[in-house]
Amino acid sequence: PLIELVASEKQRKFGMDKRNTLPQYCHQCPVQFACHGGCPKNRIIETQDGEPGLNYLCAGYKAFFLHIDHPMRTMTSLLQQNRAPAEIMGTSQNTGRFRYIEERICNK
């Protein structure tokens, strides 16, 4: 059963090892809460300080999570006001962005 796998000593050790082997760079990162260093198999490059164990997808993760930060906070605020997060689609901050996506990506 799934609960036995999740609660197993092997799974706990994996989680602890994953956390404990993060480079110091990750502990100071503003998006570490979201990526948690990524999958350990991808931690194959060094930080700018030469510390091993940085995920080779780090720059992409960081760019993505920083890019979505403001819209996610806006949607959180909408939810806290018992409003639909989809209301963000009509805000002036996103109108141009979503039009661009429709035109360029969706070929409209």
Estimate percent helicity: 55-70%
Strand order of the largest sheet: 1-2
Question: Any idea how many domains?
Answer: 2
SSE-based structural type: mainly alpha
Compute the number of helices.
6
| Computed Rg | 19 Å
Main beta-sheet strand count, sense and barrel state: 2 strands, antiparallel
| Large-scale geometry | flat
- Beta-strand level of the residues, as a percent range? under 5%
Report the span from N to C terminus.
Answer: 48 Å
Q: What is the overall pLDDT average?
A: 87
**Low-pLDDT segments, ≥5 res:** none
Give me the count of strands. 2
Give, in order, the helices and strands.
HHHHEEHH
Overview of this structure, please?
With 108 residues, the chain is mainly alpha-helical. The protein folds into 2 domains: 1-56, no CATH class; 68-108, no CATH class. Helices cover 56% and strands 5% of the residues. It is built from 6 helices and 2 strands, in the order H-H-H-H-E-E-H-H. It has helices at residues 2-6, 9-20, 24-27, 32-35, 58-80, 92-104; strands at 45-46, 52-54. Strands 1-2 form a two-stranded antiparallel sheet. The longest helix is centred in the middle third of the chain and has 23 residues, at 58-80. The protein starts with a helix and ends with a helix.
